[in-house]
Q: What sequence folds into this?
């Protein structure tokens, strides 16, 4: 069978396999699916091609993000059982197929096919891809899980940084009438269709790097000089395991769900509105902003970099200071920063940019640190599946964040005429949202013993393999 | 980082290629994005 490389015996690492091959494998997947945050590049082109509204085109992205949460929650247990290799392959197939079906929709002028392709099929690829490397990284880096998951999830932020300029240049290549540097020109539908086909091929090939490199460690493997006893003596790090089914019955899961929901809601509040927000904050009495549109776009780029860097820097920091204190900084620090932004943000552009950049780094850090927090609370047994279920908080925040900010702004006035004071109520609301998250984090305590699995349940993937091979221990190959 | 641990020499080319495949596009993306932020600082 051509796909035997996906079998379990090819997924367990042989002796001496470098664990530093796992982060690039994870990055290959996350950098590819991170394209989901670069859809604005061709949004106007699709509006013109389908002769429809921005809202109708925005639905494509909304379906994809909803499917990310739904598929991660539903398929998380399957991902833990079949292992990262098969999961990454499935993700690559869904993600690339999504682009191809989307391209067919553009080529045949059928918007529903784009919904089905990029939104529904691609969204499943997003969900599987997002969680596929997480538990594997945690198993390879038990000494530094925050660093490991930070590297991977940084890729999701970095994916947009690559896809955005790459897509602009490809659109310019496929449509000579389109100038990526001139916002008044719009690419043709034919160019977007060719872009989708190109991205399908590129992303499938890059994700295959992840598929071929990823391995799970052999049973009993641990990094050199690592003593598991040292970390499990810490109060907030368990030596036990909780199944995904039981995890959702614990208060810890729902407190952490609230923490993630509040952190993401607050971050999205700024991210959604970044470009007009900086212009509105520095609008003079004559209605003209001191910040030009080009500078507003630059501000969005700067936030993307801080969002990405925060994922790596703060998540790695959590390995040293602990997950609970790290979230206390994200949420408590966020409360102070949001308050300063609302109250003094309009006094100087540099202050505004600095405050927003740190807030966005906390937003990214919140995403990247959560898998390690889950490992600390629930163990490694089904951490991928639990992470998948927790990501529903992201989907919910994706709805709540924009609703809060847009709801307040709509009540204040017309876009393009707003000023700093019009944002205050919305930003103070985000302070309250962060305060709720801060309290939820404070309430998180170790999981009760009654939810712990018996001693044999430590690795869902190896357990599934043992069941299939009649209990024989996997020896491991590194093909 | 990758070179810090004792790895079989045969894995080094694979490590370098793997990190390059993900590192090079990421560097391109960061460079492009930083270029875009210059107007914010009057550049």
A:
């Amino acid at each position: 069978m051509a796909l035997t490389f996906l079998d379990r015996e090819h997924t367990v690492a042989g002796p001496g396999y470098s664990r530093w091959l796992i982060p690039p494998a994870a990055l290959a997947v996350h950098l590819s699916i991170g394209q989901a945050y670069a859809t604005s590049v061709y949004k106007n082109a699709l509006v013109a091609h389908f002769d429809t509204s921005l809202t109708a085109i925005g639905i494509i992205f909304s379906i994809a993000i909803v499917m990310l949460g739904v598929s991660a929650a539903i398929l998380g247990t399957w991902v833990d059982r079949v292992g990262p290799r098969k999961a990454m392959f499935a993700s690559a197939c869904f993600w690339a197929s999504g682009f191809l079906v989307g391209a067919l929709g553009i080529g045949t002028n059928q918007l529903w096919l784009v919904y089905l392709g990029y939104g529904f099929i691609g969204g499943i690829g997003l969900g599987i891809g997002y969680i596929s490397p997480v538990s594997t990284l945690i198993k390879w880096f038990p000494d530094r899980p925050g660093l490991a998951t930070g590297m991977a999830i940084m890729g999701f932020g970095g994916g947009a940084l690559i896809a955005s300029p790459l897509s602009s240049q490809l659109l310019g290549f496929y449509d000579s009438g389109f100038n990526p540097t001139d916002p008044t020109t719009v690419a043709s539908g034919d160019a977007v269709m060719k872009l989708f086909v190109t991205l399908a091929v590129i992303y499938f090939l890059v994700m295959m790097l992840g598929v071929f490199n990823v391995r799970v460690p052999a049973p009993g493997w641990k990094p050199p000089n690592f003593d598991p006893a040292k970390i499990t003596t810490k109060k907030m790090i368990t030596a036990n395991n909780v199944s995904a089914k039981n995890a959702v019955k614990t208060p810890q899961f729902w407190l952490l769900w609230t923490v993630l929901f509040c952190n993401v809601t607050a971050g999205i509040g700024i991210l959604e509105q970044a470009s007009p927000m900086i212009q509105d904050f520095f609008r003079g009495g004559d209605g003209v902003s001191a910040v030009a549109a080009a500078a507003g776009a630059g501000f969005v780029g700067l936030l993307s970099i801080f969002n990405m860097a925060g994922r790596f820097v703060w998540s790695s920091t959590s390995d040293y200071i602990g997950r609970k204190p790290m979230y206390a900084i994200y949420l408590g620090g966020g409360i102070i920063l949001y308050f300063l932004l609302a109250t003094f943000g309009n006094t100087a552009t540099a202050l505004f940019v600095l405050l927003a950049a740190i807030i966005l780094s906390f937003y990214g850090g919140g995403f990247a640190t959560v898998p390690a927090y889950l490992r600390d609370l629930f163990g490694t047994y089904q951490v991928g599946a639990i992470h998948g279920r927790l990501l529903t908080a992201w989907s919910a925040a994706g709805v709540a964040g924009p609703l809060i900010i847009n709801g307040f702004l709509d009540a204040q006035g017309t876009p393009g005429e707003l000023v700093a004071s019009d944002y205050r109520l919305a930003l103070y609301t985000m302070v309250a949202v962060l305060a709720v998250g801060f309290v939820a984090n404070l309430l998180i305590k170790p999981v009760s013993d009654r939810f712990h699995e018996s001693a044999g349940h430590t690795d869902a993937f190896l357990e599934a393999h043992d069941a299939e091979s009649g209990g024989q221990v996997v020896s491991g190959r590194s093909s | 980082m990758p070179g810090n641990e004792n790895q079989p020499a045969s894995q080094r080319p694979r490590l370098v290629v793997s990190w390059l495949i993900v590192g090079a596009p990421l560097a391109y993306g960061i460079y492009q994005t930083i270029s875009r932020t210059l107007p914010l600082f009057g550049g």
